[in-house]
Here is the input.
Amino acid sequence: MKFFSILFSILMFFLYYNPVQAKPNFPSLIPNGTVNNCSNCHISPYGSGPRTPFGETVFDNLSNGNVRWDLIFNIDSDGDGFTNGEELQDPEGQWAFGQSDPGNPSLVTLPGDASSKPTTSSVEEEFANNNSRIYPVPTIGIINLEYLSNYFDSSRLELFNANGNIVYAENIDAKIGQNKWTINLNNYSLNNGVYFLVLRNKYYNIRKRIVFSK
Ligand SMILES: [Ca+2]
Here is the structure.
C-alpha cells in the first residue's frame, strides 16, 4: 500500500510540475521574450538552474516583479558586441511590458549567449545592397540614397573621390525599414567626376557609384 502511495505522489508531481509554467510571466517581461522563452535567462531551456549572463542582468534589475528593461536594453550582457536591445529587436529600449513585441521576431537572437548574435554576414550585405538605390545618376548636385535596413544602428556615411580620399563624412542613425538620405554635392566644392558613397555599420556596407556633372 505504501508503494502505491509513493507512486501516486510521484505521478502527481509530474502531472502538476511543469518547468515551463513554473515561471509563467518571465518571458513576457522582455521584448520578444516568448521567441526563446526560458533560454533567454537560463542555461536550461526549461528554466530554473544556472542563469545566462543576460539572466544575471535581468535578476539584478527586477523591480516589484517587473524587469527594468529601460535600464538593461543598452547593456551587452553576453559580450558579443550587440546590446540586449539589438538582440531582442528593441535597440532603442522603447518597448514596455504589455505592448506587442517590437521589430521582426525572426531576427531575435539570445542576449545571454555570445554564440547567438545578429547576422552580419554577406547575406545581410546582399540584402542591404539589393534593397538600396542611389539617384539621380548622373547628378548636377542633389544625390539621394534610399535603402532598406533590418536593423537600427548608428552608421557612417562617407563620400570618396576616385582616388579613394574622403571628401565628406557624416554619422547617421539608420532605422529599421526604409531609410533615405539626401546630400547636396554643391555644398562641398567638388570637381566633376566619379565618386563613391559608402554607408557602413556593423551589419553591412552599402557602396554606390555617383557621377557628378555640374
Ligand atoms: Ca549581446
Remarks:
- The beta strands are 62-63, 66-67, 132-135, 142-149, 153-161, 166-174, 177-184, 193-200, 205-212.
